[in-house]
Design brief:
Elements lengths: L43 H10 L3 H25 L9 H5 L5
Length: 100
């Protein structure tokens, strides 16, 4: 483009989007990727809970969620409640003398 050209003519883009469907089109051949393994829709843990407890899929999911929450609460309780003032020293701590 020549910058010295001071032509004030503009480019008309008013009809640019009117027929945008005439762009690139891809043919749909109907072929899909082949699956080499059987996909299950239900996770294995929920299948296990359904098999051994006889619950429905939703009940098994909520049961496993509840067990996970109970495990987290118990572990947090044990982590933050351990080592209080009521603990007794170990037997070797009384006779232990550090090097000086």
């Amino acid at each position: 483009m020549n910058q010295d050209n001071k032509n004030n003519e503009g480019i008309d883009f008013s009809g640019a989007l009117k027929d945008s469907g005439t762009g690139v089109k891809f043919e749909d051949t109907g072929w899909r990727a082949m699956r080499y393994y059987k996909e299950t829709q239900i996770p294995k843990m929920i299948q296990w809970a359904i098999k051994y407890t006889g619950l429905s899929e939703r009940q098994a999911g909520y049961t496993l969620l509840g067990l996970a929450l109970i495990a987290i609460v118990v572990s947090l309780f044990l982590f933050f409640s351990g080592g209080g003032a009521g603990t007794q020293p170990l037997p070797y701590e009384e006779t232990y003398k550090p090097f000086q």
